[in-house]
Structures are given as C-alpha cells and as structure tokens.
Amino acid sequence: EEVLVGQNAVKEWFVYPGCELKEPDILQTKPLDIPGGTPTLEELWFGHDVKTVALRWRTFMAGMDCSIPTHRQKAVPWNLKVLVVVVHYMVKHGVLEEWEVDAFLIQALLCTDWYRHRGRKVPVDSRAVQLASLFMKGVAAAMGMNCACGWALP
Q1: CA distances from 153 to 56, 107, 146 (A)
Q2: For residue range 136-149, what is the model confidence (pLDDT) as tens digits?
Q3: How many CB atoms lie within 10 A of CB 92?
Q4: pTM above the 0.90 mark?
Q5: Is the Cα dihedral 16, 18, 21, 25 positive or negative?
C-alpha cells in the first residue's frame, strides 16, 4: 500500500535519540478497531443519547489503543483517566518499565505538596525528561482524540 501524507499518513516532528530534526517522520495511520467501523463526526458530535455517549467512549479508547476491560475502566476516577490511558499505551508499546509505571502513578497520586519543593535544585535524569516528554505527547494526543470524539471525557 502506498503511503500518502493526508490520506493514510501524517508528518510528525518529535525529538528522540538520533533524530536530527532535519525532516519530519512519516507515520502511517491505521483504522480504528471498533465494531461497526469508524464512526462519522456527525455520529460522535451531535448525538446526546446513552448509545452515543458509549460510542464516544469506545472510539476514544480505540483511538488511544487502550485495551483495558470496561469493568476496570469504570473503577478509574475521571481525573485519572488520561493518566491511565497514556501510561497503558506506553506500557503496551514497551516504553515503560515496571518501576517507571510506579513512579508515574505515585507522582499523580501524591502530588499535593509540590509547591514546597519549588526552587530546589534536583538532579535531572535524561530518561525522566524523555519519558515526561513522551507522556505529555500522549496527553496532547488524548486531548485531540477527546475533542474528535465529541468529548468522551468531561
């Protein structure tokens, strides 16, 4: 299959080891794995019934390549859903080690007194910076996917 930007591929600029940013990477897109096929924007944006709300959520999860079972998704508080979906993606694609997942979760759950540590010099680890950058890229993708799905996340 021929790869054509704008049809089945997108250009992406992203910093990673060995990338000199002389030209963008070309990433091939893949169709969403949703029963019934990829819904239209009209289906996602203009319906307000329970069926549409469920379709938005399934579309969001498929777009984020998230295979967390529905009963487990329901147990995650709304304020942590993006974190869980992005970290799940990073684990599924071999980006994070187990201890790094623990670090992300601890940071998210215990980040209540961050203001006390402002201004302190802390050692900076290049792996932590890279993971933080990838995580924020995932958050940006999740926000874009959420918008495209008609706001699956409130």
Answers
A1: 9, 22, 6
A2: 999 999 999 999 99
A3: 13
A4: no
A5: negative
User: Closest Cα partner for 55 from 71, 76, 37?
Assistant: 37
Go through 22-36 and write b for each residue having 16 or more CB atoms within 10 A of its CB, e for each that does not. eeeeeeeeeeeeeee
User: Any bridge partners for residue 27, and if so which?
Assistant: 10
User: How do residues 50-63 score in pLDDT, each as one tens digit?
Assistant: 999 999 999 999 99
CA distances from 25 to 5, 12, 22, 67, 144 (A): 11, 5, 10, 26, 19
Helix (H) or strand (E) holding 51: helix 50-63
Separation CA 47–CA 42 (nearest Å): 8
- Tokens found for residue 104: 């992300």
Q: Give the Cα-Cα-Cα angle 108, 79, 123 (nearest 5 degrees).
A: 20
Those residues whose C-beta lies under 8 Å from the C-beta of residue 29, and which sit 6 or more positions away, are 8, 9, 10
Question: What CA–CA distance (Å, rounded) separates 102 from 77?
Answer: 18
Written as six digits, the tokens of 4 are: 């054509």
| CB neighbours of residue 54 within 10 Å | 12
